[in-house]
Design a protein that fits this description.
Blueprint lengths: L7 H7 L2 E4 L5 E4 L2 E4 L5 H10 L9 E4 L16 H17 L2 E3 L9 H7 L8 E4 L13 E4 L2 H10 L1 E4 L3 E8 L8 H12 L7 E6 L1 H4 L3 H9 L8 E3 L4 H7 L8 H11 L12 E6 L6 E3 L7 E3 L14 H11 L14 E4 L1 H4 L2 H11 L9 E4 L4 H9 L2 H7 L25 E4 L14 E4 L2 H10 L11
Parallel strand pairs: 3-4, 3-6, 4-5, 6-7, 9-10, 9-12, 10-11, 15-16, 15-17, 17-18
Antiparallel strand pairs: 1-2, 2-8, 13-14
């Protein structure tokens, strides 16, 4: 065995290589495969056409989330395309013996929320899904990434995928974070520095005291948005925070199996002296609550700053101008005080219980602004139950909010929760592309605290002014 210092990424990747093809991709074993109603029907059709069965159905987990309604889920889905996709998922999973958590199932929710909360996601695993934000699971020390429909079929048929090994990047953030700064702000800050393409071709490891002090919910938020700077995925070394989160969950190991797993998980860290292709270092003390002003997640800024000018942009000046025109913003003007129309809290980025606790901490004792339509959408039925049990529901209702049912909701315009053209939405989701939340919609990405502050004031507001 080589004594050469090894990165966390290499330890997990190399342990899953079935075949190393010279000058080609690796044949790569997949431990967990998540599927949903949007990207799986064509993959199952491919299996049918080839008369191929699912090799390891117990390693695949299905849930309905992307184009599901978030109200009246007990009623038939009205949209025919959505209804057909949901029916196809139900039929395909039943045919192949795959676990399926459809609408109405108490375990149903967003795929990247239900995986961790049920203990399906465990350190050292390889995890894929036909969804780019599969990188979320990297918070547990996993190699997790999104795949295309043809690759979904490949995993179903063989439990393997062909992948070239990415380069390695480490992002270190140390220092003391200020009041009102969350994990979402940390990752938006990083993306604003690296740009939306700054990690293309890399798999990122996040390291440093800022990530070590984060909860698992916070780490999932960070890893979720790795794809938004072009990375193949992101990961954080598992530690006691990770182990405490996993222990006791339904699919987590127990007894001797837990002890054995824990012994292995504790080896999953980058050795001192291991090398990366590139490293970046940031000071957590320099980060303030963030908000985006443009049409990609790299176009972000501290909430008290001014929108930059074209002179401040190193590249992409034409797209910068187009982005400001789409958003209706101008160079060198503040974001603070801008009127907003919608607020969305939810998604696989910020749809966990910690996010709703943060949202409620601002909302408590205040009222929703009259000019704001707010969509408060838990990431799963488990989160919904926690919201009710912890009294957060009562705080929301008292303030004039409504709690919707679990689903991807207004993260993407694939369901009924669409932002109307020209309207501004402060969103805790992950993408602010043109039309992402509806044709002509204008999205401002932010943390749950910033979203809550906007919801009660009706405009972009620094949440630190509302924190006791």
């Amino acid at each position: 065995m080589s004594s050469k210092p090894t990165t966390l990424f290499d330890k997990v990747w190399d342990a899953h290589v079935v075949r190393d093809i010279q000058d080609g991709p690796d044949v790569f074993l997949i431990d967990r495969h998540f599927i949903h109603e949007v990207t799986s029907p064509v993959a199952f059709l491919g299996l049918k056409n080839r008369n191929v069965s699912v090799m390891f159905p117990e390693r695949t987990f299905a849930t309905a989330d992307h184009n599901t309604p978030t109200i009246n889920q007990h009623l038939p889905v009205q949209d025919p395309l959505s209804a057909n996709q949901l029916k196809a998922l139900e039929e395909n999973t039943a045919k192949h013996g795959i676990s399926h958590w459809g609408l109405g199932n108490p375990k149903n929710g967003i795929v990247h929320v239900v995986g961790p909360e049920n203990g399906i996601t465990l350190p050292g695993m390889t995890i894929v899904c036909g969804d780019s934000h599969t990188s979320t699971h990297g918070a547990f020390g996993c190699i997790a990434f999104g795949i295309g429909t043809s690759e979904v079929e490949m995993v179903l048929a063989s439990q393997c995928i062909m992948q070239p090994k990415p380069k390695k990047m480490r992002i270190n953030v140390n220092g003391e974070m200020h009041k009102g700064v969350t994990a979402k702000d940390v990752v938006l800050y990083i993306i604003s520095k690296l740009t939306a393409a700054g990690a293309t071709g890399y798999f990122v490891e996040y390291a440093g005291s800022v990530f070590e002090s984060m909860s698992m919910e916070g780490r999932m938020t960070v890893c979720n948005m790795s794809i938004e700077m072009g990375a193949r995925g992101g990961m954080i070394a598992p530690d006691e925070t990770t182990f405490n989160y996993i222990k006791g969950r339904e699919k987590a190991p127990t007894g001797q199996a837990w002890d054995d797993a824990l012994a292995y998980w504790k080896t999953l860290k980058t050795d001192e002296g291991a090398s990366f292709d590139i490293e970046h270092n940031y000071d957590g003390a320099e980060i303030e609550p963030m908000i985006t002003y443009g049409t990609n997640p790299g176009m972000g800024m501290g909430i008290t700053e001014l929108i930059p000018s074209a002179e401040d942009i190193d590249a992409g000046k034409a797209s910068f101008a187009k982005s400001l025109q789409y958003m209706g913003f101008h160079e060198k003007e503040p974001m603070l005080g801008k009127k907003i129309d919608y607020v969305f809290i939810g998604s696989c980025t910020n749809g966990r219980i910690e996010d709703f606790r943060a949202f409620a901490s601002i909302v408590k004792g205040r009222k929703k602004a009259d000019n704001v339509t707010a969509w408060v959408v838990p990431g799963s039925h488990v989160v919904e139950a926690q919201i009710r049990e912890e009294g957060i529901y009562d705080i929301l209702i008292e303030a004039g909010f409504e709690l919707r049912q679990p689903g991807c909701s207004a993260c993407l315009a694939m369901n009924d929760d669409k932002i109307p053209a020209g309207k501004y939405a402060v969103s805790t989701s992950n993408r602010n592309f043109e039309g992402r939340q509806g044709p002509g919609a204008r999205t401002l990405l932010a943390s749950p605290l910033v979203a809550a502050a906007a919801a009660v004031t009706g405009q972009v507001t620094d949440p630190r002014t509302l924190i006791a």
